[in-house]
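Predict the 3D structure for this chain.
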Amino acid sequence: MPRRSLLRLADLKRHLAAMTLVETLSGMDDFRFRLVGTGVAQRFLADATGKTFREIYSPVDKSIADRIVRLHRDTLQKSVPILARVGTIWAAGNHYPQFDVLYLPLADDADKGAFVWSVYSFPKRAEETGRTSSGLPKPSADATALASVVLGD
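Done. Predicted structure below.
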C-alpha cells in the first residue's frame, strides 16, 4: 500500500476538485475529511473538511453513514482500490444523481492503512444526471432510491 506522504497534491492540482482525502479514526469506526475538493463540495452542497462521516451523514440517515464507513474500512482492511457506482440518492430533500468513486488505500509512515484517497466522476449530461434541462429531476427518476454501492468480494 503506498504511503500518504508520497501523495503530492501539488502534482494533482488540476484534479483536486474531484478528490477527497480522509483519515481513519480510532478503531476505523469513523473517518475525518482532511481534504474535500471544490467540485465534491459543490455537488454535495457542503464543504466537510475537518468533519467526520458520522457528523455529516448520521443526522440525515444513519444507514448511509454506516455504509460509507464500511466502504472506507473495507478499502483499508483489504488494502485494495474499490470502485463504487453510487445510484441516485434522495436525502434531506436533495437529489443526488448517480456517480462513480474510486477509493484508494494509503498508509501512514508506519505502513499502517490510515487514509483513503477518493476520486469522483460525476455525470455531466442531462440524460446521465436524471434531470431535465430545467434542472429538475426527470419524472421517471426513482424518488425512493438509496445509495447502492457495489463492493468487491
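The helical segments are 38-43, 53-57, 62-78, 126-129.
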